[in-house]
Amino acid sequence: MKTVFKEGFTLMEILIVTALIGIISVAVILLLDPWAQINKAHDAKRKHDLAVLQKSFEDYYSDKGCYPQAEHLCFDVSTAVNVCAISKTVTSKLCHICGLETAPPKFSEFSPYLNKLPCDPQHPSKDYLLEVERPGCARNDASVCAESTSPPCTSDYCPQWYRVYADFSYENDKDSELFGCKGGGCGPAKLSPPYGFDYGVSSHQVGLQKSNGYVCVSDNSCNACQSPRDYNACVQDPGCPNKSLIYGTVESCCAANPSFPGC
To answer: Which residues cross the membrane (predicted)?
Structure first.
């Protein structure tokens, strides 16, 4: 009887194939960078959400002659921050938008223009920040405005401008760079810490607030960029060798580099 021998893989061949598969897998992961793709997807949703909000706000304004109030949009309107002028009068309100939270107290008045409010894809760690005009009133709250003037705040007001900000996940987003917001350089100046957002939309009456205190990393420290200390000034500053390490504020730089001197 003739014996038939079947050829198989040697141990060495199996090890070589396994190693090749491993190398290819690592190369694919490095090339595609799945975390970067996830972050880009989050930011794409943020851009879409803010575009939807902007359209609904403008539709509301066309009908009402006012933009929607914080009470129409924010789930945390009861704890909204009042931004005050030197005269101690309230000029705007700061609060957050998220359709997954409790409905705003006056949402039913706005719902014909947008039946569900969007929410940041990384809620609750991140939320869309609304700043809306709150004209012509004063507060008795010493922690907010320090003193009282007239007239007092009422529940009825007619905002003539708004801003909505988003905190991006992908550090190298081109729109954030184009808007001059890269590195957390946009947002309300009176936040503590100030600014901290990478993208936003606003009514045509106002633009986004932008930092004039940009810093960059050089010599293992957070250093001020050349005048006028906006994002573009940092990009052009020869003292900022690494253009990917530019931040809107010292606070943002220190948060990313806590071991630096002075942080």
So the answer is: 12-32
